[in-house]
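Appendix B, record 7
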Amino acid sequence: MADALGRQVGSRVAPSGAVAANRLGLSTQIPAVPVYLTDGRSRKVRVGKLQIQLKHVSPKQLPPGSPVSTAVFQASQFLGRDAVDDHIVALLRDRLTLAQRHTLLRDARYASDWMAAIARRTAAGDHASDPGDLHG
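Structure tokens (predicted):
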């Protein structure tokens, strides 16, 4: 629904860290009001019983890249550098397809150093299991 709202008004929309962590299965916390980040204006939207909040952020907080990569980076930021351990990396490897892990690695250039390291750890070993990918 948030993506549809973004398309409707021509804004980029991405799940906040709490929403992304929950969607990726990295957190069991379910936000009472899901918050999505946007480069458009802040507002609350209600559809039936569901209410979501769109929160304006600077374009720097919505880097280019795939929606999955953005969700991983937002979730990582929400959890914090110290909480993203081997268990979280293993969960990401399980939940992301091979193609999504390759895209995450490519999109790591838009992330901070510590989040780029998470992307590298998540994608580690994929090239050996995919002989068709010659570009690493």
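Remarks on this record: Residues 2-125 form one domain. The radius of gyration is 16 Å.
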